Amino acid sequence: MATKGPMQDPIVDPRIDPRTGEYAVIAPGQNFKSITQKIAGIVLTSNTPLGWFFGLMVAGGVAMGVVIGCTWLFLKGVGIWGITIPGAWGFAIINFVWWIGIGHAGTLISAILLLFKQTWRNSINRFAEAMTIFAVVCAGTFPLIHVGRPWLAYWLFPYPNTMNVWPQFRSPLAWDVFAVSTYALISIIFWYMGMIPDFGTLRDRATMPLAKYMYGMLSMGWRGSTRHWIRYESASLLLAGLSTPLVLSVHTVISFDFAVAALAGWHTTIFPPYFVAGAIYSGFAMVITLAVPIRKFYHLEDLVTLRHLDNMAKVMLGTGGIVAYGYAMEVFMAWYSASHWEFFMMWNRMFGPMGWAYWLLILTNIAIPLTTLWSRKLRVNVTYLFILSLIVNTGMWFERFVIVVTSLYREYLPSSWGTYRATKWDYIIYVGTMGLFTSLFLLFVRFLPMIPMSEIRTMLPQTKVTPGGKNAETASQEAS
Amino acid sequence: MPPREGIYGLLAEFDTPGELVHATEQARLAGYRRMECYTPYPVEDAAIALHFHKTRVPLVCLLGGVMGVTTAFLMETWINVWAYPLNIAGRPLFSWPAFIIPAYEWTILFSGFSACFGMLALNGLPQLYHPVFNAPNFRNGATTDKFFLCLEATDPMFSPVETRTFLEQFPAISVVEVDH
Q: 0.90 cut: is pTM over it?
């Protein structure tokens, strides 16, 4: 992130670092012990806040939508959804793409920002990674239940069987299976590996025997040996290096589901970069949606500071710009291609029966965020950012809706034109996955360390090693 | 494993990483080789002081990646060319550009698994028991805010008395014996 020069007027706000004029990444006055106590305390406390129980109750209740919706779906079949011919793809694919996209910010924060040595990411990377995994869980539900006979979903994988039938690897849908399953597994591995040292801390600080036992098993006997740390750091960097091309490839492969089809509105070369940028855009919005209430509820303002929110808003500004370029290019290519079908598709998208969805998307994804995020005052206004993040998430959902629905329901042949209307079962399952996501997230913040303690420790001035083994307190005084 | 007897080593506890690194460097100069630092976060200077720079994790990761790309590509070719050939819109059976995408994903999958499990295997984890956990002050600090240096008894230079005197010259909070 670009740093501004020292501010001209004297700063009263103690959260602003006078050397850079930016908000400090970690509020001053923290040490190894205070950080550990703060983060481990959230997990190890025996007084679970009442608000947490209430939240879990509500989220769990909403998550029942998935259970009820899927039960009815498995009994009756996909006919209970609003899908028709030609609108054969509906909420299932929209929600799948939306959820997977949300997951992308977690990998971006944990992998790409690690490679770029953006140390501010340390406070938010653990829960962003958790968000990734839970979003992939929600996303993965949809392709499994939309296949019609979900009990045969394992046919998607190449395995030897008595029918002698194998997957067809020239199909983007087979690529999807590989991309999404790899993404889920690598995200889980990266997440778990990052938590091993923190599990060691929790094991050593736990007082309840069950907690000691569980965190002890999860820590695998981590003891912080320097040789272990060096191999661990090496593996982390490698995983970051591997996750970076992975995260870019996942939404690329998903965009191939569309781009490979010979359908106006889908068959464009801009889809891969435009999908990836949109994924990161919505993912950062979701990180803000989660970070704002969590830092308030658990009083983590010292660790997840305004600097984090400011930086995330800047990333949203950047990726939102790419998304806007993508929209503009789609319109331009529809005209420049001189293809009747492309031109009609775009005209129909803007002014057809579902034109409202297109303009809603432009309003929520482009007009509101890209005009206001330039203002630093608004970028550090927590309430505004929270509301904006919800707006952007809505906008990104509508983007997928517009791409899927408006391209399908006006086919090449006017005789096969139809419409698309989601049924209550579409909504019940969709809202249910939000409850599922929130429930998983609430369980995560209660039982796992949501901020990586070992990584936060490395950001303190006390970590400085001075030659000759001088007491590092002098070093920290020099630094501050 | 035969039961071990006697002490595992001497464990010195420090308040700051600087003191730990200094003590480690001095121990190395004094001729100690079998020693290990324990810190609550990665301290690179401690690794330099221990002369431990190179790990085989990247090699394991590379081997995993090569295995992944080969497995996936050969599997796809065998399936779509020999095991279950299908004519899809007249495209060639051996459509290698399409095969690259799953092969690419499995390269990442296999190398990621190798990096993580290779790291754990090289570290000898999971290992739920280790002698240093017997030290009364170890678990209170090693994963929170204290820095430890352990000179191990298997070192030829090691002697319970002289090594203790050696460690006590540094501003260590405590020097304790660690039992097996």
A: no
